[in-house]
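Tutorial sheet, problem 5. The two components below are modelled jointly, 764 residues in total.
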Amino acid sequence: MPVRTVLLGQGTCCISAGAKQISAALREEIARLDLAGTVQVKHTGCRGFSQIDPVVIIEPEGLLYSEVKVDDAPEIARSLLPQGQPIERLFYRDPVTDRAIPHHRDITFYNKQQRTVLKNCGYIDPEEIDDYLAVGGYQALRKVLSEMTPEQVIEAVKRSGLRGLGGGGFPAGRKWEACRRVPGDEKYVVCNADEGDPGAFQDRSVLEGDPHSVVEGMIIAGYAVGATKGYVYVRAEYPLAVKRLGIAIAEARERGFLGENVLGNGFGFDIEIFQGAGAFVCGESTALTLSLEGARGMPKPLPRPRTTEVGLWGRPTLLNNVKTFANIRWIINKGAEWFASQGTEKSKGTAIFSLTGKITNCGLIEVPMGITLREIIFDIGGGVPGGRTFKAVQTGGPSGGVLPEGLLGTPIDFDSLTAAGSMMGSGGMVVVDEDTCMVDLARYFLDFTQKESCGQCSLCRLGSVQMLEILNAITEGNGRIEDIDLLIELGESVKIGSICGLGQSAPNPVLSTIRYFREEYESHILEKKCPARVCKGLISYIIVSDKCKACMICLRKCPVEAIKGGKKEVHVIDQDKCTRCGVCLSVCPERFGAVEIIPGREVKIHG
Amino acid sequence: MKDRLKEILSSYKRGRGKLIPILQQIQERFGYLPEEEMVKVAQLCGVTESKVFGAASFYAQFRFTPIGRNRVMVCRGTACHVRGAPQILNEVKRQLAVEEGETTSDLEYTLETVACIGCCALAPCIIINNKDVHGRLTPKKVTDIFASTKKEGQDAG
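Model answer (structure tokens):
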């Protein structure tokens, strides 16, 4: 029997950081030291702390080695010998105290979290059903089929207070009940894994790290609403998630959890994977079902029937997000009351966020509803790195908004975030510092949504483009002061005049940045300056003469030959020729740091 | 070509909802969706050509022009954006001398952008041929990546 287990995260993010090569090297070393009998190397999903990937964990001690490199493999293998010692230099160092922390349970990033959906991500091998069974997998399904009626299952989901975690927050139990009540012998369960938000990766991580929890939740849902077929609508850009989900479905079928006679109970249910071809608007339920049917994914016009009544191929369809399904097994196993005891009065359970941007600890986190933004960003996230200052946090992706420092006390739940002008959305949480321009950020999100608009509603199709053009003008230095109010008026109109969530929320990033950072818009327009030094039309690159060593590097690399000077002759940027591409800044040796960006295009004083 | 298409289509039972998976398979085989193949899909699936083209043109995944030997995707996720993705995209464009969505004239590179690849800790990043992720980039690192890949290409050629 293995005495030790080496856990190696193999999520997309871990693999990008080199986890595959480390695994191969480590396995080779372990075999070479003849440790294969006592040490087991296990591939798992991502443990969420992307910042320090690739991570190696040694159990049962619970040691965590961070930012491991291939060259570390021999030393790690040797440490697993009977007389081996932990490797201190690979311990995670707390960025605040600089203290080395040997055990993962002591790392602040983890111990302030409350992991339910992500509990097994990073512990079990997602490609081995026995690993899932060993942590109580499919027990909820057994319990449901042997002890509960469909009505009792729905009652439990209702009592738990679980709300749809795809962003909408609609009470899951009520949706299940509505679908159950519609008569029909052909119903469908659809899992929405079309995570199109830029900056959100939690659905992917759950599918890569614990796919069976989603499969189990879907089977239970099928039993509850009376469906016999399930679909997982997953982004084609997530090849690893698709692969692992495919393995999980095949394994579940083999073991009798899926098929014509689930666990010999007479209930039949099967699941098929559908790879979405890339359209953000397909997050809307009627668009998603049309897409599954092979058509353009355009939301159906109002008044439209509920998907629970007329869904896929005109049949009653239950559509929930990955995380909603992944919660079901816990509600059944631990009880609705247990689930309802967590979180706030109206938002129960946990929330999962992709914490990214200008943050010390970037990664995937699961926290109880009701925790404040400040606790997430400063305690779990470790604040803004590099001595920079926190400016705002953006939640909810292109449909959400930005919240300034004054609102960091806002508790995380569906209603508080909406009231503050943002939203929970699909769980992206991007922290920005003083180097991020809020006008540019609004422009970035609007650029995304206007491209993704399906074009049915005139206000969404044309209004969003109009708003983008105004924002482009402002960031290029051609804005007029009345444009700010025009943006607000247009934004409100787009919201009213659109039939689906995409259009109704597309103006949010613009409206919330105006609401909280109006002075930045005014600087762009009145002073022709981008205070964050981002907008190309409103900044200048300069070479600080007393720092320049006349090394010729920037002069040679400048693609438009805008830099004048020579050997022993301080370099100067010709502002008329400069295209603000930033190459000079990135090539200037760090020890000189002679190239700087300044707000505005008035450079004579500094030049 | 017709035989290859038949091979793809034979794996699908005639019926509803298979148009997008069929188009995905064709694109995987050819690298893009050739017009004549889409016409044949319409005939064989019993739907109008406009329905096939309508669906294909709606989704970001489908391409109607041939693709280069190397696919360079610049991540445009929010984390990448706030950490300097626009400068990265500009530098890649400059290195390859193509715009977003275009292929170099020697068919060596196709430049695309992607909404998010979810490697936000490595922002800003690019992914080459769907497998090689280059993270924490600066414009200079981009220059170095293409200097070495181009050289490798020449050595191999």
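Marking note: Chain B touches chain A through 46 residues (CB under 8 Å). Full credit if you identified this.
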